[in-house]
Predict the structure of Aldo/keto reductase.
Amino acid sequence: METISSSVVTLTNGIEMPWIGLGVYQAEEGKEVETAVKTAIDAGYRSIDTATLYGNEEGVGKAIKDSGVSERELFITTKVWNDDHGFDNTLAAFEKSRRKLGVEQIDLYLIHWPVPGLYKETWRALEELYKEGKVRAIGVSNFMQHHLEDLIKDAEINPMVNQVEFHPRLYQKDLQQYCQNHHIQLEAWRPLGKGDLLNHEVVTRIADKHGKTPAQVLIRWCYENKVVTIPKSVTPERIRSNARIFDFSLDSEDMEAISSINENKRYGYHPDEFPY
């Protein structure tokens, strides 16, 4: 049986990325984020997702160092924030993140949001970092199809990952299809939605049917849709529980019922309406 530490997807450049990672958005720098990351690594997680904006890269780095697990066994993602767009700014922001994380190489570096008029120049910096071997994979976050089309038109290297808001209330099927067609791995942030999805009648019914938690059902739904997930939690038991999705599967009726929850509802900003 697959486990959280053995279950990986191969990106278009041959790099293996875990299907499930720990998201640390809003995890406080210091003890809170360090405990969350250590708990996750102990539970078998090998992927940790942070960002400059989160203000906790140092805590993530400390937890990695203290975990006793080699950097090479882990998959660390961070992101360049909107204020750091532009070629030189991005290179400088990357170095700052790398130092805070205390790693030689970052596994995945993402453009956090598609800042109008700047993301292409920022992408050139990511291509440079990739060519120099400072990152193992590069990608984007919160890019809609039109952003991807615009970027790819002039890019030397296509994004390997697109991390977007994705959950049953926002089942971005067209974007998912586009990414699949262009060998871009889709990754879900906020895969559990907010508390309301965990209490949704369809989700709780399917969870009861399989003897699983609603969170496990939602993560498994993403997994069966071939979408990478990074559920965020700082609660040790939830972190451990979220990893246990490999001992059951959803049938076509379950998948259809969960997908039908879709109402194109976002909990975060629409990328075209973000206050850049």
In short: The mean pLDDT is 97.
